[in-house]
Design a protein that fits this description.
Helices cover 36% and strands 17% of the residues. With 399 residues, it is an alpha/beta fold. Helix 3 links the parallel strand 4 and strand 5. The N terminus and C terminus are likely disordered.
Length: 399
């Protein structure tokens, strides 16, 4: 298997993605990692997960096949140097398939998925930020076994919308994304309209044709009617052409959940050059830089949100500055190439630790790096495994 520049890949990483991870785009990770050297094999369970694999290999679990047995058969003849499971089912199947093996097993963990209370028994973990790392420590995992790797955004989202900065419009437009859950903060955004009399709200919802979704939408609209703002609230399907157009015309994207949730709405907004107001919940506090790419507000506080949004919407200079800074933040920290480089460094640290501990029967695979990068790494203090800018990825080694 060759990398982008024709070099033979020196080592293999297996991505086991049988759960359909909702908080990471695993295909983006696979493509990014495949571009920089390692051979990535992405194991998926549904044909709908099969994507363009020019930079990596993908294998589809046959219907009705036992996942652990299928993986073990694959790895009997082509053992990977490291296995990364995305989701509880994926990590469990990989653990069984690797029984008796010395290959390190990594699990990607997320606090807001239904299986979060069941922490898989693996060698190491990856999470999206410091808040998720702290939550995992709360489940009894040693911090030395937690690597932080932020989410990446694919190229399709990294295109600034030509419609941003619609200062000539008579009414401002807010956009928020909803999972139609009580704690996702959509009700807070609707209530904040009382402090924003000349502002409309577009609520982007996924799967709005299901019974549960219709119930959730009815709940939100009933609340809007009670507050006298229903005429300024519009709900559209996430997959519709209208949603794309309305997001493009938004002055401001608001995401204020009361509990940790997906970061994608904020990252996609920033990639499009949209200023963001978010709650400092979960890893949102690491994603939005307060006063630079947007604002952070207290979750569940409609009046505070409304006043913050009103001040920002009347300051076109600050809106424009936030827009530019948001795009820069995405390009510096959240591109697939950057995230893949950080993930590879986490893998390198894991493999080196395994080798030092005598738990591996093979050499640590080489990782392409410049002399400058190697010198920077060697100059760090003992136990410091952060990447060069110290932000995007780290293997947390504090006790």
């Amino acid at each position: 298997m060759s990398g982008e520049d024709g070099r033979t890949a020196a080592w293999t990483v297996a991505f086991v993605d049988l759960d359909g991870s909702g908080h990471r785009d695993v295909a983006v990770l696979a493509r990014g990692l495949g571009r920089i050297g390692p051979h990535v094999v992405h194991y998926v369970s549904s044909p709908s997960m099969v994507q363009d694999t020019r930079r990596y290999e993908q294998a589809l679990l046959p219907e009705g096949e036992d996942a652990a047995a299928w993986l073990a058969a694959h790895w009997a003849s082509r053992r990977p140097e490291l296995v990364h499971g995305f989701g509880t089912r994926s990590a469990a199947a990989a653990r069984v398939a690797l029984a008796g093996s010395l290959v390190p097993l990594v699990a990607d963990w997320c606090s807001f998925v239904p299986s979060a209370n069941s922490v898989p028994a693996v060698d190491h973990y990856t999470v999206t930020g410091a808040a998720e790392a702290a939550a995992l420590v709360g489940h009894g995992v040693a911090r030395a076994h937690i690597g932080i790797v932020v989410n990446g955004i694919d190229a399709e989202f990294r295109q600034p919308d030509p419609g941003r900065g619609t200062s000539a419009a008579s009414r401002a437009r807010l956009v928020c994304h909803t999972r139609l859950l009580p704690d996702d903060g959509t009700d807070t955004v609707i209530a904040a309209l009382r402090w924003l009399p000349d502002t409309d709200l577009v609520v982007i919802a996924a799967g709005i044709t299901t019974d549960d979704a219709r119930t959730g939408i009815t709940r939100l609209l009933d609340g809007a009617r009670r507050l006298g703002v229903a005429d300024r609230v519009r709900v559209v399907d996430h997959h519709s052409h209208a949603a794309e157009r309305l997001i493009g015309l938004a002055d401001l994207v608001v995401h204020v959940p009361r509990a940790p949730g997906p970061l994608a709405p904020v990252l996609e907004a920033m990639a499009r050059g949209k200023p963001v107001i978010a709650s400092a919940t979960g890893d949102l506090g690491d994603t939005v830089i307060a006063g630079v790419t947007g604002l952070l507000v207290t979750a569940g506080d409609p009046s505070g949100l409304g006043r913050a949004a009103r001040r920002l919407l009347t300051d076109r200079t600050k809106l424009a500055a936030f827009s530019v800074a948001a795009i820069d933040r995405i390009e510096q920290r959240h591109t697939p190439a950057r995230v893949a480089t950080d993930l590879q460094q986490v893998y390198r640290d894991i493999l080196e630790r395994s080798a030092r501990g005598g738990g591996r029967d093979q050499e640590v695979p080489p990782v392409a790096a410049s002399k400058q990068s190697r010198n920077a790494q060697s100059s760090k203090a003992p136990g410091d495994c952060t990447t060069e800018n110290g932000t995007s990825a780290e293997l947390v080694k504090r006790s």
